[in-house]
Structure formats: C-alpha cells, structure tokens
Amino acid sequence: MTAIVERMDSYGKGAWIALMVVSFVVFWPLGLAILGYMMWSGRMGCWSKGKVAGLNSGKFGMDMRDRGPGRWYRGGSAFRSSGNRAFDDYREETLRRLEDEYEEFQSFLEKLRHARDKAEFDQFMADRAKRADATDVEDGNGKDAGKDDGKPTA
Fold first, then answer.
1. Half-sphere exposure of residue 77, counting CA atoms within 13 Å on the CB side?
2. CA 103, CA 115: separation in Å to the nearest integer?
3. How many structural domains is the chain composed of?
4. Does one domain contain both 22 and 81?
5. Residue of 39, 2, 35 lying closest to 20 (CA atoms)
6. Are residues 70 and 137 part of one domain?
7. Domain residues for 31?
8. What pLDDT is stored for residue 61 in this prediction?
9. pLDDT of res. 143
10. pLDDT at 83 over 80
11. Residues contacting 48, CB < 8 A, separation 6+
C-alpha cells in the first residue's frame, strides 16, 4: 500500500485527483474512500490548513471562538527565528499584544451577548406580565357579565 501511495505522491496532486475521478466513475465507494484518504492525509492542499488538519493534530471539536491570533502563535514556537533578534522580539511582542486584544474583544462580545440576552429576557417577562394582567381583567369582566343574566335580583 505504501508503495502505491509513494508512487502517486511522486506524480503529484493531479494524479491523486485523476485517480479519485476514475474511481468514482468505476466504483463510487472506492472514489469516496480515496477522497476521504486524500482529505485526512493532507494531500489536498486546500484542506491542509482547515478543520481536517485540526482533526489530524488532535484539536477535535475546536470551536470558531477558539480561533484567534493564538492559532498562529503559541508561545513563540510557531515561527522560526528570522536571524534578526530585534525583529523576532518585535514580532513576539506584537503577536502577544494582538492575542491580548483578541481576548479582550472576545470578553467584550460575551458581555454584549449577555446584556442582549438579559434585555430580551426582561422584555419577555414584561410581556408575560402584561398578558397575565390582561387575562385577569378579561376573567374579571367575564365573571361580572355572567352574573347579569337579565333577571331582576331581589
């Protein structure tokens, strides 16, 4: 199996795509299996930086809110040294500052969501109280109207 994979890799991505298309035409489950293998192994360049790469790297279930500057910068290990120490320090400081700003902004958005949810809930409770008052008024009028059936009372 590895010999076939190595040979296909030597031909390039076009050979993988051609093999997948031919496999879909001949026997669609085989084409689907090849497509899955190409995605999970990172042989499709467009998927190598996306969610599938995250799954392959053990970041299963990574939420969109977890994405931020930190996805590029993890304590200085994400980038190689440029050879210019002053630039490397500047880059690390800038990335650290961006990550801090990103976290502050996420916190701000969370507070906004909380405030919006609270306002919506308060509006719901006010509407509910109004409906309850209106129902009480209607029930009160309905009881009084039921007493007056047109007969004189003695």
1. 3
2. 18
3. 2
4. no
5. 35
6. yes
7. 1-61
8. 46
9. 52
10. yes
11. 42
